[in-house]
Structure formats: C-alpha cells, structure tokens
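Page 37, continued from 36.
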C-alpha cells in the first residue's frame, strides 16, 4: 500500500503531540522518521512509531526534556539529553556541533541520557545544508556478538558521514557496523523469508538463515562476518562507535545500552541512557571551499568511470541508492506492509488520531 509522505509525517507529528511533545518537537521527530521512509530505510521510519509510543506510555522517556550542555570548549560539547526521545535530542545536539563548526572550524559533541535517534544519516544530511562535512554515530541495544563470540555484547552501532560536492550530488555514507541492520531481519521475518549466509548465528553460535533465531537469543554478526572475510574490521568499527558514543559521553555502553524494545531484558546501567556522537567540519578551515568542491566532483567522476564488473553497471557513489529511492517515492508515495498499516491504525485508535 502506498501513502503520501505528507500524510505519514502529519500523522506521526500528531501522535507525538498526543504523547506530550511540544508541537515543534513533534514535527522534528516526524522529520527524522520521514527522512528514513523517503530514502528507503523502512526499518527506521514510520514503522517504528509504535515502539516510540510505547516508550512514552511506559514513561521510559521524558516528553519535554531540557537538553543541556554540561561541559564545553570552543569546539566541543558534552550534552545531557535529560532522558528525552532521541529523535529530538539528537537533532538539537547535532545543531550544537554545526554551530561549533561555524565558529571554531570544527565541532564535536557527545550525548548521554538519550534514546533511539532514528537513522544515522539524517544528521549529516543537515550538515550538508550548511556546506559542512557532517558525522553521526550512536550505540544501540545489544544485537551483535564480537568476533568469535556467541553472545550479544554490542549494538548495530551505525555511523554516517556526508561530504558536500559541487556540480555532483553529495557523498552520503550511512551504514551499520554489523553485517546488516536489524531492521532487515525484521523485514525478512515479516515476509517469511530466509536471510543470506553470514548474517546471524543462533543462541549456540551456530550459523543460521532463519531470522526468527534473533528473537530466540541469536546474534547478528559484525560487518564482514568472520575473520577471513574481515569480521575483525566490523568488530573494531562497532567498538569505535561504542567508545565514542557510550564510554566518552557518560552513557551506557556495550551490553548495558537500554533496549529499544521494552519487553527485552536490560542489565543494570553503567551510565545514562543511550549515547550519540556528532561532528561537523567547516571545509574552509582546511582549504578553499570551491577548490574542495571541484576535487570532490573529480573524485566522484573518477569512481563512476571505473570499468564495470561483468553483469553490472559499474560502481555507484555512496548515497546513490537512497537518492534514487527518494526520487521514486517523492512521486509514488511510501510503501507500507499491511502489518505496518495495521500497527499504525492501532496507534491511531489508542491516541485518537486519524490515520486513513
């Protein structure tokens, strides 16, 4: 079923307001979900609305947090999210990073006391609007086993970086540090499909292709899966994100990060909430902006001119698939699985907000 993005955005904003958010914060949270849906990252868009609503219903997040800076220098800030929704804490902290970059050339911001902040790519996309290089990363509740482990210890811990360009489209890198995002398993399970080799292991550490093994205590594998395929590199990337977002910020880290899904067990905290890390870089602090744009354009054109591998159209640029999806969905609407629609209708009933 296809739905206009404007309808879904309006619905999400109204639901968030019913949960106690201010009108401005409700629209901001809906913006983050919309960015996921329009770019084809369905696992982090409107389909997640029910889970955010449950956080409010169970009073696990603060609908009107006082986001504050608890330590800062000219180019850095440590932010406390006051146990707010990550969809509003994240954008506000990212704005601080961009302001620091505008004034000092670079801004780095850590966040504690937050929660699930949506897609990592939303935040560097905001930096692009100011011709800044933007960074975003967050730790997440445990889904991933370390290399050679058979127990969840890390989250999917995504990282996103965006680079402005000149005549070409910007480069947007947005990826989980696990072999695949958890949402893809959820989509596969919803459709009754098996998943490829190297994605997951069951609760005993044995390879599996059945996505339902995750809910039975299985684990996602780090990017690369095993040592021979570079799994140690994915493990190191996940660790990097966790150390910057969780340890450095004063948030929870590793297996102690609060679960986004209330029914799951959480260990005693070692910090405050979920942690994020944002950075912005002002390009003219390093080189002339126009020269930089020309160099990025040249880089992009060089990559696109690579001799194609057999059976392919040749290399793509990071961000191409999402841009193509955005162009298609801007015309046709956002496709929603029937189970997602049913869930949204239930949210609409509970919050007395019209959906259809």
């Amino acid at each position: 079923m296809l739905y206009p993005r404007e309808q879904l955005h309006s619905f999400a904003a109204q639901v968030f307001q019913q949960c106690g958010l201010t009108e401005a914060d409700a629209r901001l949270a809906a913006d983050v979900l919309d960015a996921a849906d329009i770019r084809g990252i369905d696992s982090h868009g409107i389909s997640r609305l029910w889970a955010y609503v449950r956080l409010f219903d169970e009073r696990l997040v603060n609908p009107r947090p006082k986001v504050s800076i608890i330590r800062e220098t000219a180019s850095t800030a440590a932010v406390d999210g006051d146990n707010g929704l990550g969809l509003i804490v994240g954008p506000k902290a990212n704005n601080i990073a961009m302001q620091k970059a505008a004034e000092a050339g670079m801004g780095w911001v850590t966040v504690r006391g937050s929660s699930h902040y949506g897609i990592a790519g939303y935040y560097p996309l905001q930096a692009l609007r100011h011709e800044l290089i933007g960074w975003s990363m967050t730790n997440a509740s445990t889904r991933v086993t370390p290399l050679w482990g058979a127990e969840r210890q890390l989250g999917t811990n995504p990282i996103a970086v965006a680079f402005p360009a000149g005549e070409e489209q910007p480069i947007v890198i947005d990826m989980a540090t696990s072999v695949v995002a958890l949402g893809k398993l959820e989509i596969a399970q919803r459709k009754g499909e098996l998943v490829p080799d190297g994605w997951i292991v069951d609760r005993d550490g044995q390879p599996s292709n059945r996505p339902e093994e995750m809910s039975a205590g299985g684990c996602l594998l780090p990017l690369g899966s095993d040592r021979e395929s570079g799994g140690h590199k994915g493990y190191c990337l996940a660790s990097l994100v966790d150390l910057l977002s969780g340890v450095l910020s004063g948030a929870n880290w590793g297996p102690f990060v609060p679960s986004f899904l209330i029914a799951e067990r959480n260990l005693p905290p070692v910090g405050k909430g979920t942690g994020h890390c944002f950075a912005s870089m002002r390009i003219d602090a390093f080189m002339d902006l126009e020269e930089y744009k020309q160099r990025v354009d040249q880089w992009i054109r060089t990559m696109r001119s690579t001799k194609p591998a057999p059976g392919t159209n040749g290399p793509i640029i990071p961000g191409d698939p999402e841009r193509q999806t955005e162009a298609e969905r801007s015309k046709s609407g956002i496709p929603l699985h029937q189970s997602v629609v049913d869930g949204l209708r239930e949210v609409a009933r509970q919050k007395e907000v019209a959906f259809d």
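The chain has a mean pLDDT of 95. Flag for discussion at group meeting. The chain has one domain: 2-179+221-288+335-351.
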